Amino acid sequence: MELIKLWLVDDHTLLTEALTARLAAFTDLWVAGRSASDDPRLGGRLAQERPTIITVEPEAVRVPQAELFATLRAAAPEARLVALTGSKDPARALAAARAGADAWISKASGMAHLVEVLRGVARGDAWFPPRLLGAVLRGLRDDLRRGADGPLDALSGREREVLECMVDGMRGPQIAAELGLSTNTVRTHTHSVYAKLGVHSRLQAVSAARAAGLLPRAKDPVQTS
């Protein structure tokens, strides 16, 4: 099982220490480090450690959310961002998605759910609570309608195929099998799609594709005799 390297960003030290202790029970999850949001060493440590996932509390921090997320993205561009928060505000969730969050998890969630989401995000999934997802998708769609002009035209043929598979709900290994590519090649195309669409996550890419008219493809009908 591939090791998932975590970095916890939260200004509540007791919480990150407790979470580190709980996550130690899972052999595929490793907390490589913890930081406060205003730690001047944060960017350098992330660049050196290159975590798979960074969890961050976008509310109870000493740095504005947009600034913090930009710092995290610049220091660890390959890392997935997970908002681990006590907020249930749809506007806050939308702001996090706009800033590049791949998931939004309540601190009231159980450990089993947290671990499930972290593993999914490491595979390339995105997750927002159902009660917030509608507002997030509508907000991202409206953003794209206001600012997009044929965004899919910039994609190469292979990049569009990868995006179509993402819209169909496929994950990285499934896309690789579908298109006859290696997972590393799929990852490269995925990052190129993100860059050309001006997004930072699978959720945003799928939302952009849907807003541009790219809908899930119909499944082949089951043949019956």
UniProtKB/TrEMBL annotation:
The keyword Transcription regulation applies. One of its GO terms (molecular function) is DNA binding. InterPro entries: CheY-like_superfamily, Sig_transdc_resp-reg_C-effctor, Sig_transdc_resp-reg_receiver, Tscrpt_reg_LuxR_C. It comes from the Bacteria. CDD domains: LuxR_C_like (cd06170). GO terms for biological process: phosphorelay signal transduction system; regulation of DNA-templated transcription. Residues 5-122 form the Response regulatory domain. Keywords: DNA-binding, Transcription, Transcription regulation. Residues 148-213 form the HTH luxR-type domain. It holds the Pfam family GerE. This is Two component transcriptional regulator, LuxR family. It comes from Actinokineospora terrae.
